[in-house]
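[job 0412] stage=fold_complex status=start
inputs:
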Amino acid sequence: MKNFFEPHSIAVVGVSRNPNKVGHVIFKNLIEGGFAGDVIPINPETSQILNYKVYSSITKVSKKIDLAIIAVPANVVLKVVKECNHVNVKNLLIVSAGFGEIGNKKLEDELRNYLNENKMSAIGVNCLGIYDAYHNLDALFIPRYRLRRPKPGGISFVCQSGAIGAAILDKATEEHHTFSKFISYGNATDIDESDLLEYLAEDKHTNVICLYIEGIKDGEKFFNTLKKVSKIKPIVAIKGGLTEQGGKAVLSHTGALAGKKEVYLGIFKQTGVIYAESLEEMFDVASLLEKGVACKGNRVQIITNGGGYGILSTDAISSAHNLVLASLSSETASNLKKAFPPTVSVHNPLDLVGDATTERYKIALEACSKDDGIDAILLIVLYQTPLITTDIVEVIGEMHRETKKPIVVVSTGGEFTQNLSYSLADSGLPTFSYPENAVKALDKLAWYEQKKRVL
Amino acid sequence: MKNFFEPHSIAVVGVSRNPNKVGHVIFKNLIEGGFAGDVIPINPETSQILNYKVYSSITKVSKKIDLAIIAVPANVVLKVVKECNHVNVKNLLIVSAGFGEIGNKKLEDELRNYLNENKMSAIGVNCLGIYDAYHNLDALFIPRYRLRRPKPGGISFVCQSGAIGAAILDKATEEHHTFSKFISYGNATDIDESDLLEYLAEDKHTNVICLYIEGIKDGEKFFNTLKKVSKIKPIVAIKGGLTEQGGKAVLSHTGALAGKKEVYLGIFKQTGVIYAESLEEMFDVASLLEKGVACKGNRVQIITNGGGYGILSTDAISSAHNLVLASLSSETASNLKKAFPPTVSVHNPLDLVGDATTERYKIALEACSKDDGIDAILLIVLYQTPLITTDIVEVIGEMHRETKKPIVVVSTGGEFTQNLSYSLADSGLPTFSYPENAVKALDKLAWYEQKKRVL
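[job 0412] stage=fold_complex status=done
writing structure:
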């Protein structure tokens, strides 16, 4: 699998001169993405593209090729695959569409058989490509100005749907989330989700695996892989086609059978996979795990400068299945009462009230990080109140480096707020716009931590 | 009530020379907000602030004052109120804190009695202030650089918590939502949520009322008001302190009794109030109603260029309580099949696939807007795909103006996507980042439309 993500040389078969065509876009992205190895364009009808010498066939390339990316029409794919095999190029990323998903099962079966018989490995067909942030490998067929690429970090995303992958990747980048790998695997003609999960379990950069699936062909393999991988890395999964009508839509999308809702939810529960009910929730849980946050227990202390936010967070934690409200130790409470004016409410929520200063936050954070009765801190900072100075992000960042307890930050607002939140995200803190989303994500993380112990 | 939102002259009592103090901030905001009438600062200890002549007392002002904003310490408030009464200023916005919420019930009762006996009206105490976008009335005590003010539009927000109000207002502005009025009413010493709802029911600019409450003093009045107002305007409500522990937090915040969850949910259901389970959901439903969108029925057609998004939306609609998937009429289906290549899936979801062009969207939108079997269109546009041109926002905007069916747009992505979404929002279309959120909001709207008919 290493040849897919850390190749030294790549051939792109089907690089059109037309800059809107898939092969051309991928070729350009590999170059603009700063890929360090050789990138060789293949096209029998031209001799030069973007100042690169074009080869008429992969069989004409004398250099050793680690990965061939195939972007030719479906009916030509098998011919190209055979040429690759002929020159011993065994790793293929096939982005071409037009197979099982539009009824051409026979063509796809023929391709699969050839790959298997010749011990070749392929990601695809009918996929968007792959991206590896640590190796500057940008083999996605969407222009970089339409879909921004994330910086290196802890999320890896295995996605059966190209469009979902692209959209989420773009939004995640905007919100300063960081990725190790993104893999759109389409019809899973050869390499499937289970193979990718196994590989990511061992990827040192991956802290959390996001998974969007529509249909699974080998259920037993999938079950066993999830169980094995969950013990090593958290998996957050979302399943398309869980309803009867959604299942019908799956059939016409990736040609897969969607399967029953109860079956999938049962599998996820048994194997310790975090089930996300929406794309946003998948994203929320992943951003909590992205920086390697682990939660040793389930007792959450709320610190806030907005009373209403404290109340809504209390409601959310009380209603969560796997979280409880922490109680400040009598020592912590007595110290905080001495340090704060009487308007501050020293309980849970710890309400620093509307005239809270950065200093007040510092005292509260220090006390809570030392209190053994607290496992995680839900830190609400509303930057709209006038006495908060922007250096609060440094105070929070410092505390995050010093304590082993997760600090989850909630701030709602416009540009001023967003910039401060991004700054905290860049320092490694999970940040949220709404308290309910943060608590829901923490709840799922707490479930995973409990489950992991008994897997 | 009109004097609160459309005053010709305002006195601000307690305008400090210190620019961080509440009275100073409000005074400055009124001026910078472009308020057209007179703004008169009151402070016995100085003669000039920001080039305005300062009066030592409201009793020294000879002009007629429609609204007095009081920002003095709690123990001085009653004295100032009496002076206002003395010069026949009967409408007061009292932002000062330090009453019932910190145990000073007696002081608040005294104030309330005086107001009642002298037929004065007050919003507050312990509140953030009010904002009216149509009358350039910015009487909020948060600087404008920390909390951006929304443009005139259809949302009015009645909020017992100042911090929640400020944070949501700021975020909503960032996302191009538009407001009529924002009212933080704090302890509801005199004017309460019911009085404000009654007023907003008749406000011609308000299309939807958002309500955040923690505790209600007069339950019967509240119930009757909700029932009456719901028939005229949709209300989206969120209630802080629905759990036992959340209720305790309410007590120390606004000094109110939170009440039982079942009671509130029952009241909302009976009176046709849309209950929001989170701040984000309140926001989502409100943005659907902001532009006056009404949904005549519950049959939703999905149009998408991402198969996975179509599937997740199908799942969400199938799982919703008040929505069903529309069926294309045989005429629509046959016309679309003629117009599109065979890769396009002419069903629900109508999947225009990854090479969808702006033209393909135009044909799909026109056909669906003419089909009588469709009540609303969930339009998924993922701008990451290469053949979509940016003029698609004009095509969608034009269709929105021509059809009476709601078109709800879902696009996920970074800056490129966001700018196009904002452009659509400015043309009056509701836009969402995730399909599940859009469907959930539509589901709540459909519930309201059904309920309204039998209220």
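[job 0412] summary: Chain B has 16 helices and 20 strands.
[job 0412] exit 0
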